Amino acid sequence: MSDTVEILDPRALLDEGEPSATFDLGAPLAGKVVGLRLDMSWRSFETVLDEWQRLVVAAGAQPRLLVTGERIGDEGVQTRADLDEWSRLIDCGVVGLGN
Fold this sequence. Notes:
By secondary structure, this protein is α/β, with parallel strands linked by helices.
């Protein structure tokens, strides 16, 4: 057994000329509904979403938060239904670990 633990850096380093991880709606954010999805398996993301909500409101848009549940069983069926409905109610969304 080792006395050290190696922690991997999850950030991707982009080479010059590589596409960035940004997205442009091609229109102002003001007046849009911006979906923000929280997966309860990564609770610290709540802090990130607090900041996203602040920025979305400051840009004149309306945040719409969705907290997803399990992916299997009866709760998985409900999660898929919630995601389906949420996706119809938003103009764009911020999801996943790539934020």
